[in-house]
Amino acid sequence: MLEFRGKWLWVTYLLTPVITFFKILIPASLVYLGFYLSNLKYPFSDVLKACVIAEFVCLLPVFTKILWFEFVEPSFTLEEFNSFYPLSLFSLFGSSLLEKWFHYPFKALNVFEIGYWFALAGSLAFGLGQEFNQMLRIVVFYYGSYFVCWILFVVFISLSIF
User: Is 2 a member of any domain?
Assistant: First the structure.
């Protein structure tokens, strides 16, 4: 398995920037659609910049996990490391209490995701000179609806597999 991983590791170096690009492009497109439907005229590049700024919130759970296992619980198992999702609903229940198809929604519903929404609305409000409440409304309606649909899609796939 390690030999196979070493042989195909270069593929992850190609896929990571592509995945990150779409991870930023999708929210930017949805927010831009929200602007269009709300009759707000702003360049797509400004919306894209706001999404790039807000994307830094997604690094916080990774840093939290690293710091947790470095300083709070330095002796851990691989199972504990893989099932640790800080400040999420999953961390309240644990993997043993939930059905497999509940894992992803409970991991996705976390404080950092809500922080991303606020960071996106804040960077849009600051960058475009609009009210925070108006930008938050657009983020919640357009990106939030996509987020719910994505969770339902993953749950549907999980139910098909399990």
Answer: no
CA–CA separation, 31 and 137 (whole Å): 10
pTM metric for this prediction: 0.88
Which residue range is the domain that position 23 belongs to?
14-161
Structural tokens at position 49:
């910049």
Would you say residue 76 lies in a domain? yes
Distance in angstroms (rounded) separating the CA atoms of residues 86 and 65: 7
Please tell me the total count of domains within the chain: 1
- One-character DSSP codes across 60-84: HHHHHHHHIIIII--S--HHHHHT-
Instruction: Evaluate whether residue 114 is within a structural domain.
Output: yes
Q: Quick one: average pLDDT of 56-68?
A: 93
Q: Summarize pLDDT for 19-54 with one digit per residue, the tens.
A: 999 999 999 999 999 999 999 999 999 999 999 999
Measured in degrees and rounded to the nearest 5, phi and psi for residue 94 equal 85, 160
The answer to whether position 1 is within a domain reads: no
